[in-house]
Write a sequence for this structure.
């Protein structure tokens, strides 16, 4: 196979991955999108005695660059540098995984075992991308079915890693069938392979549709929720209008649907424009104004986003995100915060804990202490926010428990499941998706809430400042979606969930098993390579 043909295969793979992605893509393409890359890898494996394993890089990287570019180019609307870093780094990481798979396959005594290594390595890569400071799980393969939520009702047992496993197995099976056909395998064997492929595709879908049709979404306690979409332009209005004018605008929209039965009014991320010291929360003009408005609706609790700061007490251990005052030997933390308040003087806070790399967190500070010391010497880190260790739900006066995700956090399944483990009956998502413009970005973000609803079987209310606000029932159906870039308010009774799904209880167990398998496979690969190297030296002697 010529170099030109290999590059065409790589480009074809990248296009298939892109055309499969939500929200306008067809996810069925994911079942064959990696096959061209497996053909390329097999080409190099058959020439392992004459071609370096690392020569594979130049033929795999283009596919991942195309996929990342065509599906996440919209980041550029927020930050050009951030977009370039995210697209290039993610493509490089994916390429590294494929090269590791190739190295293992070259080394293992049974080359077919290398495909098991691919499954372990890829899922482990996605798992790492959910947890380290350079987190970027947007293109996890299991997310590709977000727009076809009737196919993936079984995510309540597996989470998105079940979807990733499904995709990887299907690509390997299709590749094996192509190889069998090239080797002119017997027609009966080819037919048998085709039946297996059909069953692996159809069985999960049929099972999912049956679960979808049998699921009763109106079980649980009905809760009256109002969701506000103020539509403040994040580039020209949101941080320039007087804070109390913003509060007034939000409440004028909210009162179109709020009444004496309303139990929650949900407002978006950063709706309060004042930078609030948490020690003085009850003296903040925007908080006072919201409480005054709530007097007319004493049964309602308000959930709203804001930016806060907290002072460290003398002698208190500093966090890696601590910032030093320029004029005093004192430190504070800054947060992207969600708050619940009512007519009393009580309030509860949650600090966003899955932070956007580069924008809200300085990556890898916790692992490299010299970065932390350098940051302190420079007067505190710039852009690194504080976080909360636990997912503690908000509790209203009636005892209802609500897990509140701030923006990017709603992309993380096991992270959000932490709220349910801690008793959350409902999930709210507050976000500001206007940074990305009218692009696939805000629509993809919306669809990920469908996956979270299925995984946790919890109703979701989603308030987006300039994106799309909606309700999502326990089956993942999106309801009352607002229009992009238009102010709006929606009201609905949503139902609490009480039971914990298998996924909530056990979390990302598929990824943890894969991580164990990855360590095992890498150790076996390393030992065999060392053994083979030793034999080579012995022959030379």
């Amino acid at each position: 196979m010529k170099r030109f043909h290999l590059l065409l295969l790589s480009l074809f793979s990248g296009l298939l991955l892109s055309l499969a992605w939500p929200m306008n893509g067809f996810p069925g393409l994911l079942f064959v999108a990696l096959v061209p890359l497996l053909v390329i890898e097999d080409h190099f494996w058959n020439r392992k005695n004459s071609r370096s394993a690392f020569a594979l890089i130049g033929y795999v990287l283009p596919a991942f660059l195309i996929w990342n570019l065509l599906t996440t180019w919209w980041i550029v609307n927020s930050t050009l540098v951030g977009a370039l870093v995210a697209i290039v780094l993610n493509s490089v990481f994916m390429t590294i995984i494929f090269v590791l798979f190739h190295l293992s396959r070259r080394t293992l005594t049974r080359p077919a075992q290398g495909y098991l290594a691919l499954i372990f390595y890829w899922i482990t890569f996605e798992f790492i991308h959910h947890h380290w400071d350079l987190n970027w799980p947007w293109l996890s393969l299991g997310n590709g079915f977000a727009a076809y939520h009737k196919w993936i009702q079984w995510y309540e047992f597996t989470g998105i890693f079940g979807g990733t496993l499904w995709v990887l197995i299907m690509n390997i099976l299709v590749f094996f069938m192509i190889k069998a056909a090239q080797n002119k395998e017997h027609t009966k064997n080819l037919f048998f392979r085709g039946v297996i492929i059909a069953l692996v595709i159809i069985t999960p879908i049929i099972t999912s549709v049956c679960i979808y049709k049998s699921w009763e979404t109106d079980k649980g306690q009905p809760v009256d929720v109002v969701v506000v979409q103020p539509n403040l332009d994040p580039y020209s209005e949101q941080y320039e209008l007087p804070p109390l004018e913003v509060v007034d605008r939000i409440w004028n929209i909210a009162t179109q649907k709020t009444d004496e039965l309303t139990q929650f009014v949900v407002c978006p991320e950063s709706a309060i424009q004042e930078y609030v010291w948490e020690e003085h929360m009850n003296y903040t003009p925007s908080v006072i104004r919201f409480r005054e408005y709530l007097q007319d609706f004493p049964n309602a609790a308000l959930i709203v986003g804001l930016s806060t700061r907290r002072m460290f007490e003398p002698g208190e251990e500093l966090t890696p995100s601590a910032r030093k005052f320029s004029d005093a030997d004192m430190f504070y933390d800054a947060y992207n915060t969600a708050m619940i308040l009512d007519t009393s003087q009580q309030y509860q806070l949650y600090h966003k804990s899955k932070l956007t790399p580069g924008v809200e967190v300085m990556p890898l500070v916790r692992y490299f202490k010299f970065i932390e010391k350098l940051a302190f010497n420079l007067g505190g880190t710039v852009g690194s926010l504080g976080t909360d260790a636990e997912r503690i739900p908000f509790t209203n006066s009636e005892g209802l428990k609500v897990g509140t995700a701030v923006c990017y956090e709603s992309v993380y399944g096991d992270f959000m499941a932490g709220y349910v483990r801690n008793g959350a009956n409902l999930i709210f998502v507050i976000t500001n998706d206007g940074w990305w413009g009218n692009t696939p970005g805000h629509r993809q973000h919306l669809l990920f809430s469908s996956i979270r609803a299925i995984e946790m079987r919890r109703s979701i209310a989603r308030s987006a400042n300039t994106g799309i606000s909606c309700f999502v029932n326990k089956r993942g159906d999106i309801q009352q979606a607002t229009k992009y870039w238009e102010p709006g308010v929606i009201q609905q009774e949503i139902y609490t969930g009480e039971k914990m799904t298998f996924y909530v209880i056990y979390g990302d167990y598929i990824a943890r098993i894969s991580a164990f398998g990855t360590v095992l496979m890498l150790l076996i690969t390393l030992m065999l390579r060392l053994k083979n190297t030793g034999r080579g030296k012995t022959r030379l002697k």
